[in-house]
Predict the structure.
Amino acid sequence: MARLIPVRFLFAAVAVAGWLAVCSCVNIPTTYAPPIQRKPILGPEVGDIGHFIAMSDARAPAHIVRDISEAVEGGSWRWTRQYPTLRFVLPTTKNLSLVMDFSISNETFVLTGPIVISWWVNGRLLDKVRYDSPGEKHFQKPVDASWLKAGADTVVTAELDKVWVAPDGAKLGIILTRGGFQQ
């Protein structure tokens, strides 16, 4: 003899099935519009010469003009000599600051004492700063837009008043990590 299912269980089962059917019906579009595309004013570089470079970047040698080691040390920095010079190509000239992150070695500082670095942009003296202690340093100063030209080489030189000279004649200046122009 067949057993009958109570009516209340039947109503509950129909209610749950109806609820599941309603919840599973979602109107999801099959295509989406792409987001609005915007080019950053100073974003990642696509060519070899850009507005900012880390010394560990594979494109760094293209920025180096003179007095910066070819070898990357510690995976992130390079030794300089007395006149480290870099070149940059700027997409704009408005509201830019020259930014340099570097260190002065404890070992060389003991022998040289305080150093003065003259910061030059396209042959014009931007600033002259005395560094009285070793360690990590950050230089940042706005550059007059009239000194710069968008799309052309911009040459930056850090002129050190003295460097450490090794017994074999090798000269060591500062430890350069990164530099360039930022808004």
